[in-house]
Amino acid sequence: METPRNNTATLITVALAGAAAGAILGILFAPDKGSVTRGNLTGRARQLAGNLTESLGIRRHTEEHAKTPAPGVDHVL
Hints:
- The relative contact order is 0.05.
- This protein is flat.
- Helix content is about 70%, strand content about 0%.
- It has helices at about 5-30, 35-55, 65.
- By secondary structure, it is an all-alpha fold.
């Protein structure tokens, strides 16, 4: 009988091996060129990050926000 620690290590190893095999197969059978796929992944990652920051109510730092004085401040340097 395996100890719980060995079970966990085995599960993690199998999960990592499956993820690696999936990544390799995905690259080998990708329908688009690498540059197109990278562009798609970048766009989706940015969209996900935007959705996450919006849902968490996080305000992104932009030049417009940097030029806006904080409440109670009369001027911006």
